[in-house]
Design goal:
heterodimer; A: Lipocalin; 3 helices; B: alpha+beta; Porin; 2 domains; 51% strand
Chain lengths: 160, 333
């Protein structure tokens, strides 16, 4: 009986979607390094919370992220790690916007920062490349002001 | 005895009831006043006040005698005056009659053996005796009776109060109508409903109109505004007929609450877009100007039709200026 339970649990866990969902570790340990360079268009859905100040209340709640302006991203080998490539923005979108990120296996991580009239907006994106045309994942961020944001995103990549 | 009676009759005949103005260099003796039903001390105080007023208003000299008699007739008074070289002698009474006090004073010219004057005045209460002393002295100075003086012969509490003023037509006014926001104020919404409650005070040409009101969005869709004016208005009415145009202006407080539908976009490279109903409340200053027409002005209930321009300086949702036109029909009860 004890063995039957162990076998059942093992099968149940083995078949569960959670178990199959790749983690950072799994995407980072993927054997092939994803190639994600190209023109990125970022879209997503999220919500802002913890907007404490009265004049920040207008930012709280659900929002639609993007579509962003096309971001021309180049992918280069990292100087320190052979299994990690760095991501950089090749076209300037002004001094108010900055981008930097990395690719490890199929894991794609990057951060953006934009100075807006409403305040500084920072996002941290953590996703997984699906081939070289799409990245999906989650983001979190701060701003404007004391607001905190989080949500899901999708990046469509148009190869150069 | 017969001779004495004849003498008194001759003297009485000589005491002709002529009223002549008192002269400035007269010497007066005001005898104690008799009283019935009135506090003796109050009557003595009145006699003192009367002496003071005679001295002030007639510029006369007042003399006193020891143990003066409260005379009841002219002969007694004349004799008292003769004893003191006073050419004018006042005697009389303060008597209660129901709730009234009747003051009577007779002045005898002791030199000419004539009655120089008779004053009679009625007051409502003891406190009014002070005013009565002034009035009697004034009548004596003018050489007439109190009844003939410019002022009335009766002093009442009402009379002492400020003179009556003209009364305007006044009443509660209720107005209903529509508000049409201008520009992008009032949540950038459309026409709404107006209800005003006020007080209307109307004179021949001027009408004062303090009011409190509420105006709100009539569209059931997204977005909402509610405005509450509390202000004071002044109107000028042209004409007195049943159809009278008027113009007016007012100023006061404005309270605005709005729920403004808005698209909130944060960022430009990577915009985050949210559809929101931005709620805000503000209090500020407001002013208005109007043209209108009064109907049935000569009746107790009047109607009122007006068009009004309103401007409110109230900071809500980053907008300060809210302008509107209102059209309303009101009744004044």
């Amino acid at each position: 009986m004890r063995y039957a339970i162990i076998i059942f649990l093992g099968l149940a866990l083995g078949c569960s979607p959670y178990y199959r969902e790749p983690t950072d570790d799994t995407c980072a340990s993927a054997k092939t390094l994803s190639q994600v360079a190209g023109d990125w268009t970022i879209e997503g859905y999220g919500s802002r919370t913890k907007c404490l100040e009265a004049d920040e209340q207008r930012y709280s709640g659900d929002f639609v992220l993007g579509p962003s302006l096309p971001l021309n991203i180049e992918q280069k080998p990292s100087s320190t790690q052979t299994t990690v490539h760095s991501l950089a923005l090749t076209t300037s979108l002004g001094s108010d916007f900055s981008f930097h990120g990395s690719v490890q296996g199929s894991c794609v991580n990057f951060e953006t920062e934009e100075q807006t009239d409403d305040g500084l907006i920072r996002y941290t994106f953590t996703g997984q490349a699906e081939g070289s045309t799409r990245i999906e994942g989650k983001f979190s961020g701060t701003g404007p002001g004391s607001c905190r944001s989080s949500g899901d995103f999708t990046i469509l990549i148009r190869a150069q | 005895m017969k001779t004495r009676i004849r003498t008194q009759m001759i003297m009485a005949a000589l005491l002709i009831c002529t009223t002549t103005p008192a002269m400035a260099d007269d010497t007066w003796l005001v005898l104690p006043l008799r009283s019935r039903g009135v506090d003796t001390l109050a009557v003595e105080t009145f006699a003192d006040l009367l002496r003071d007023q005679i001295r002030l208003q007639l510029k006369a000299r007042i003399v006193n005698i020891p143990n003066p008699i409260a005379c009841a007739d002219a002969i007694c008074a004349r004799n008292s005056g003769s004893a003191t070289n006073a050419n004018l002698v006042g005697f009389g009474s303060v008597n209660a009659l129901g709730s009234k006090l009747i003051v009577s004073l007779t002045v005898v010219d002791s030199k000419k053996n004539t009655i120089a004057g008779t004053q009679k005045i009625t007051v409502d209460r003891v406190e009014d005796l002070e005013a009565a002393s002034v009035r009697i002295a004034k009548a004596l100075a003018q050489g007439g009776d109190t009844e003939d003086a410019a002022e009335l012969g009766t002093i009442t509490r009402k009379e002492i109060q400020p003179p009556k003023r003209r009364e305007g037509i006044r009443g509660v006014t209720v107005r209903v109508g529509a508000i049409v926001p201008l520009d992008d104020g009032y949540a950038n919404m459309g026409a709404g409903v107006l209800v005003d409650l006020g007080y209307w005070y109307e004179t021949k040409s001027i009408a004062l109109h303090p009011r409190v009101g509420v105006r709100f969005d009539a569209d059931p869709g997204p977005g909402l505004y509610v405005e509450m004016p509390i202000d004071f208005n002044v109107n000028y009415i042209f004409g007195l007929g049943d159809l009278a145009p008027y113009i007016g202006a007012g100023a006061g407080l404005r309270m605005i609450w709005e729920e403004r539908p808005a698209t909130v976009t944060v960022g430009s490279v990577m915009p985050a877009v949210a559809e929101k109903d931005l709620q805000d409340f503000g209090v500020g200053f407001g002013a208005s100007g109007r043209v209108g027409m009064m109907f049935l002005r000569t009746y107790t209930m009047r109607l009122n039709l007006a068009a009004e321009y309103n401007v409110a300086v109230v900071p809500v949702n980053n907008r300060k200026l809210h302008q509107s036109l209102t059209f309303n029909l009101g009744a004044i009860f």
